[in-house]
Amino acid sequence: MKIAFIGVGGIAGNYRSSLRKLEYPIAAVCDIDLERAEQIAQEESATAYTDHKELLANEKPDVVFVCIPPGAHETQVVDAAEARAALFIAKPVALRMDTARRGLESIAKAGVINQVGYMARYSDMTEKARELIGERKLAMAIGRFICRMSPSHPWWGKFAVSGGQMHEQTTHVFDYLRYFLGEAEEVQAFGIRDVSDGIADFEECTVCNLRFAGGAVGSINSTCVSRGEDNFSTEFFGDNFYLKVIMGSSLRGSVDGQEIDFKGDESGFFRQVEQFMEAIGSNDQGLVRCDYEDGLKTLAVTLAANRSLETGKVENVTI
């Protein structure tokens, strides 16, 4: 099985580590930074490229990991799908909905195995939470993503490239709430800029309220200027039911008066790659917990949240 990477910065290192653990070699890598591409290629005993189309034509990979910033998405997914490669795409799937729609059309036409890197769906805490929730109806969820980004990051603080924190980082939380509560129909977001000098040219602190199709409500808070505890966490509420999931750490709460205290081992980073490769090996898209279409739906929610930041109004989630 020939595996290639389009983009080898940041999160690509995590996926490469998982593939190494699974004993899958990488044949080729592509990055607009030639020096970085050559360095990673040397580490992986792979061939380096700076043009993804050249990589696809020369290498004819069976599997492509697309690990590029949201604003860098153009035709990479389309080209890889047309080359009949199975696709793993780092979140979010694009910066614009029209780009994502073209990607979805190409994947559907090619019929290739596809997955988006929302690793939280694959964690031990998630599996335990779904077991405890069962058939219960959730009424409310609260999520947050708290961190302090480095001003020296090459692209994250530029809205034109990242799409802002809700779109690029807190997308994990939006996706997680979708995974448990279903589709969001309306959102309203507020934010504040210029909290910290040099970190971002967009709102560094945001709050976003959501209304879901099933009637549940939610709220997601984000900041990129302050370190804190439980930087990625969610809380779920229902009748005599409460769970708090601290991603990569633990799950606590109370179900019908019974106290819950669960600690998991698998954060989801490794398992998502493991199951993707299993899906390819067995040609079973059903093993994937977030396909490209599902990733596009999360994209629609964060794009609506960004629109609400501009208008100050309730925005419909549209695909």
Number of strands: 15
Distance between the termini: 34 Å
> Main beta sheet: strand number and arrangement?
9 strands, mixed
Percent of sequence in beta strands? 25-35%
Order of helices and strands: EHEHEHEHEHEHEHHHEEEEEEEHHE
Mean pLDDT: 97
Multimer state: single chain
Q: What class, by secondary structure content?
A: alpha/beta
Q: Which residue ranges are poorly predicted, with pLDDT under 50 across at least 5 consecutive positions?
A: none
Specify the overall morphology: globular
Widest sheet, order of strands: 14-13-12-11-7-10-9-8-15
Task: Evaluate the radius of gyration.
Answer: 19 Å
Total of helices: 11
Tell me roughly what share of residues is in helical segments: 25-40%
What does this molecule look like?
The protein has helices at 12-21, 34-44, 52-59, 76-82, 97-110, 124-133, 159-162, 165-168, 171-181, 269-282, 292-311; strands spanning 3-6, 28-30, 47-49, 63-66, 86-89, 114-116, 138-146, 184-192, 205-212, 217-223, 232-238, 241-246, 250-255, 258-263, 315-316. The protein has 319 residues and is α/β, with parallel strands linked by helices. A 9-stranded mixed β-sheet has the order 14-13-12-11-7-10-9-8-15. A 6-stranded parallel β-sheet has the order 3-2-1-4-5-6, sandwiched between helices. The relative contact order is 0.15.
Question: Could you give a quick summary of the protein structure above?
Answer:
With 319 residues, the chain is of the alpha/beta class.
